């Protein structure tokens, strides 16, 4: 550990960043001052658009060139103002004194260069190393960031690595020249929770080993709690609070900080309750525990495989086993959640319910078998099942007015027209908390949360019995996420709607579900009521998922460093692949665990 | 939300496309040139100082040489003693008719092929796109020449020939774009609501292709004008004595040393018109395509 | 990879088959009688009939086509009606000149187009950028025959720097190459500019800069390999443009390539030559596309040949 | 004279040289090339249309004009070294007649006995040709033929060595071996051909040049510019209209320009089978409506106006014939007489290379003045020819660029295929579809007058035939093109050689290089 000095390693004073817009200059970072102490971690937190990335980029003089510029302020590093350095000198600072990790591991590596080339470039950016020395250092770095088989990785291209691996490479590049400071801009946002946990632990370990200081940018209070020594909370480009981590979480002073913390779903906070969060607040709710009745949706042995074509004749050569023999029921008024990591088949399962992709098995919606139904035969079924897509913006036709978009299902199904239609749409708008006079606007004129409400309104317009909500809150800031979750639950309370709620976020799932199914590699590994899953997880994978969720509580012991990273197994197999048998085990009360047969 | 503000700015609440075109100097230049040519074509009978078909006796020297530009014949006379300026003005009609009609047909065929192949997939996709591939591999000019030889050339035949050669590009572009739009969430969402193909195609996909189609249509006009000129230059375009800028050059090309005005003035006219459409098309591409933003 | 190439070659064969059919139909419809042209103006009707028979022109259409295909499979493109020579010999004799011209044109395109594009992208928004882009617009808008005649007039006739048409030395190559490459240079500079601007905005460029790499290293080591990708995809299209362009350029400069051959043949409806040149051009275009598709994965490892 | 042999000359052509096979070649470019590579029994005195024996030493014609006997020269060798014999002569002519050769000139030999059988492929050779001995050959004709000596001077009758023909088969035209003054040294397809002096040529004073380089694919304008630069000696396609005035007025070049007549007539055909050209008045009206002087001006005066099918330098030309004078009013009156006072719509076909479309436009304007609206169809040569060969396709054709240039200087050569009934068939060259049985009979009669003493009478008869044709006016003759060519200062020779009426465009064997003198 480094000596604590009175003056910090990096002192930022009055940093102000402006961007040029058609309407004139706009200040996106406003008079920001902070000090980064040696060997410490400073977390900059705040919601999307609050100016976090701009702050980081301005410290590297990497602001997007003509649009953004630093209009005031200083940042002293070893006595030099790095905001004012000319480009040639700044180049000496980049990499040597400050290393940086970017938000998107998928795009921050050059797709056409090998890992070895890029890492080598970073090592020798300031020249003077022999090829052998570069290679040795590259291997050392890869080893340091815990990448298995480093020698092989050097020859690989970025797209051949998983997201987690790539982010490790980016970290290795940032560390290549032994900088004193590491700036990490949302380094884990795009990653699965389990991978996120590994990366966060890695950064902590490197910090401890190398004694560097870290500026960590994140919007996730859980991550802040895991990482921070000091926390700086930003809102609209301004600093609203700057305190040690323990203080922030225990005694947040600024209302915005309080709001932020309140909105964060905390894993385990609902231990002991049976119904979803909202309902437990309201004991008079009509549906408390779903009464055992006819299931609204019955899925048996649902299997979805996608062929990968190739060869001379474009015949299938490989197959993606996206969903493998999944069975479940959804009762009226019940929320079933599907959780699992990226690519495990959640969305595919949801789409199969609406016949949006070809599938095998048996699905019954309100008693009707939907297998093989054509577009028009499906239409009545779709009155009962609707879907809200993952990305609200992408699922709204940007060239249509939102009012028309919400009216569309009614028109398609011929349920209303003329003034009746207008009334229905206006009602739906009010129902999801939008005002009816916003109907004439276009999707881009709304915020992310509002757009999600529009999608919900559209899904509601047919008064379906089931809504498939695919990652409906994943793209939203926590505060908005909380609002949308509340809305969904209110609707359920009112109408007895069922949800198939798809998410990768265990904490969110805990809040909203009656029952939870954990998916891994296209299969269910565990299914049961919320309490059964969260309070008594049985399957290893379920446990691992839960352990990986960062908890917004700095007092909790930080998780230990994990083993070397491994890639997730791939769902792509040869044509002759037969999935291994699984045995289901009912451990009581409908709590099912699937394990490989023969164990 | 701050995010909303940012996006409102990028997806500008359209102050009409025209207004935005006018704000760009290059596009404005292009529009002005096009306007001049259109006016010349429409008002040719009033603007042209002479009958474009009249072979003036005094339009040739005693030896039979054409006259250089002068006060009487502003752009000089051609090899049979006609007023070049008048012929250029009437020639604008030809270029524009070909540009608009031929290209219009090409755009319609191309988008119909591209959209249906892109949306319906299956055998329609295979058949249409294989055919498009085939047409792509055809050396366009050779095809046009052969077609022009089969149907003995006239203004309308030339227009048809050009249309048959030019639709391929548009088919390709709309095909690719339709395919990607058809995969976008909002189309999947439409299907999830039970919308039929007609509704999806006409209400959701077509509007998204419109800007692409408009852009390619303008750029296509430039290509078309050039192709007509080339066909005429090779002597298989619009039939004499109807003037087209290309066949004026064709008739006079060998005189480029002794009467350069006969080649380079119409050459400049073709260049200017093609340039104008390219400038406007490119500006439209910028304006209508949000992914191309950040230029100018 | 091998499977991919095989499949593409099969596709190519099918495309060529289609093209041969379409061309054959079109030429069948052309209102001109080859037998009479061969027979000449002093021939008797009997002679014409006899020639028609020898050439198989009196056979039904499908039989004529099958005959042609049969020859094609044996690498026989037929004999020119009027030149009385194997079409393959004629094309082989002229192909080198056209290839040379294309090579020259490609060089002009790349040298001019890419440089202009890179400079414009780096100086985005400046006056240099504007000037270069206007120049590129002129490039894509200028009719080749006008450019050709203009260059000939100015540089060969007036200034005498280059020979007035013809073939043989390097000096002969310059003006036709520029004429043919002008259009492509315009396209390339514009594509290169927008592609490079786009690439320079990418995250990985920021990553590279964050390691302290020099501007040159970022540009040449990181940005250009990515920016060049869309341009490689252009190769196929480019060859198509060339194939159209050489008819005009070769006729303006008297360049003894297949464009000139095609043009002469079209004028005289020498069907075997027209067929042959069309097929060779189509082949060139398809091969160009195939090359583009084969080169791309060498530069862009994400793209797998399937 | 004592002209030293040696030196080289560069000649350019626009179009490719297709073949140098004498039985097949029939283009502007290869016609005189073949004449230099091959020899026939007969030829013409350089620069004139006067017949003289070439590889024949002497000949005899029988009384009735049906038997021709030729004695061959001694020491005539092929380029491959073998001596030329009468057997070769027989072989060559039979080869031209053999349908497998697809010779466009087969029909010229129609008067030789056995032609029918040979040309239909029923017989191997021509029964009328007999090899008397190695140096003597005898032709028997089935009918008297006054043009037969001319026919033997045609390229189609030039002598080829059998062994070489068989060696190269269909590609003989690319590997010509003859007995001419030059031999082929190099041929780069589409680019250039090089002729070299044949050392063993039977006529030791010929050729004068050591080498001729032909560059093909050169636009006439480019060729002329290069000539001005001193790179080219003779532009094979002549002086292009675009440069004519310029060089004519250039003191440096004006003396190098040579003018000569040509056995050529440019005319408009009117299809007598199509309305309203089935009426003679209409055709005559067209003849009167065209302002030929203005057309001459458009082509820079490089022609003389024509009023009859024959060109002025052709025997049988009617000097004092006045023809239809330019008179639009009278033309209108004629139209009115034909019941077409309001004029009519028609089409004028024309080949699409400069200056033909321009001439057509001038004609179009003249026709318009008398109410005839002729729309122009400017097409590739092949398409125009195809349209002309159909009975109901082309009402009017401007013949420029495809017009008849006589194969040999005899009036009969302007009649058969283009004005006689034989040509008025589908696919024929009689684009006017004019068929007058009486005139055909007269022509037949004229051509059987072989006796040189009756030449005057024969000429008069032909004159009559053409004047009768003009009464029916299936054509509107417009002009007889004059040839204007230019040579570089380096090349010498009598002016006549550069406008040789037979060795078009230049008599390669006789011109010489001044720089080796
Ligand atoms: N290139 C740009 N041009 C104009 N405005 C920009 C640009 N980049 C960012 N902004 C604006 O600057 C503000 C701050 O952006 P910044 O990227 O720093 O946000 P952030 O806090 O990192 O958000 P996120 O969590 O979404 O990454 C936002 O309002 C954004 O719209
Ligand atoms: N149309 C398709 N063709 C081929 N493979 C597909 C297709 N759609 C999905 N897959 C594959 O199926 C698997 C499951 O995909 P799915 O979208 O259901 O995952 P997910 O659990 O929703 O993941 P995420 O959280 O990333 O959305 C993935 O490996 C995916 O790549
Ligand atoms: Mg950010
Ligand atoms: Mg998903």
User: What's the number of helices of chain A?
Assistant: 20
- Count of helices of chain C? 13
What is the radius of gyration of chain A? 26 Å
State the share of residues found in helices of chain A, binned by percent. Answer: 25-40%
Number of strands of chain C: 0
The number of strands of chain A is 23
Name of the top-level CATH class of the largest domain in chain C: Mainly Alpha
Span between termini of chain C: 7 Å
Distance between the termini of chain A: 48 Å
Give the full name of the CATH homologous superfamily of the largest domain in chain C.
Answer: MetI-like
Unreliable residue stretches of chain A: 1-6, 280-288
Strand % of chain A is: 25-35%
Question: How does the major sheet of chain C shape up?
Answer: none
Question: Could you state the oligomeric state of the chains shown?
Answer: heterotetramer
What small molecules does this complex bind? adenosine-5'-triphosphate, magnesium ion
Catalytic activity (chain A): glutathione(out) + ATP + H2O = glutathione(in) + ADP + phosphate + H(+)
Membrane topology (chain A): Peripheral membrane protein
InterPro entries (chain A): AAA+_ATPase, ABC_transp_ATP-bind, ABC_transporter-like_ATP-bd, ABC_transporter-like_CS, Oligopep_ABC_C, P-loop_NTPase
EC number (chain A): 7.4.2.10
Report on the structure:
The complex is a heterotetramer of chains A (599), B (296), C (306) and D (517). Chain A is of the alpha/beta class and 599 residues long. Chain A is built from 20 helices and 23 strands. Chain B is an all-alpha fold and 296 residues long. Helix content of chain B is 72%, strand content 0%. Chain C is an all-alpha fold and 306 residues long. Chain C folds into two domains: 2-73, no CATH class; 94-299, MetI-like fold (Orthogonal Bundle), CATH 1.10.3720.10. In chain C, helix 9 packs antiparallel against helix 10. Chain D is of the alpha+beta class and 517 residues long. Chain D has helices at 28-37, 86-97, 115-119, 148-153, 162-168, 220-228, 241-248, 280-289, 292-298, 328-337, 356-369, 381-388, 416-419, 437-447, 455-472, 495-498, and strands at 8-13, 42-44, 51-53, 56-61, 67-72, 129-133, 136-140, 182-188, 192-197, 211-216, 234-235, 257-260, 266-270, 303-305, 344-351, 372-379, 396-398, 475-481, 483-486, 491-492, 512-513. In chain D, the strands form six sheets. Chain D has a six-stranded mixed β-sheet. A five-stranded mixed β-sheet of chain D has the order 8-9-10-1-11. Chain D has a four-stranded antiparallel β-sheet with strand order 4-5-7-6, covered by helices on one side. In chain D, helix 8 runs antiparallel to helix 10 and helix 14 (437-447) packs antiparallel against helix 15. The longest helix of chain D is centred in the last third of the chain and has 18 residues, at 455-472. The N and C termini of chain D lie close together (12 Å). The relative contact order of chain D is 0.16. Chains in contact: A-B, A-C, B-C, B-D, C-D. Chains C and D meet through helix 2, helix 3, helix 5 and helix 12 of C and helix 6 and helix 12 of D. Bound molecules: adenosine-5'-triphosphate (2 copies) and magnesium ion (MG) (2 copies). Residues 306, 320, 322, 340, 342-348, 504, 571 of chain A line the site of one adenosine-5'-triphosphate (ATP). The site of one magnesium ion has 5 residues of chain A, from helix 12.
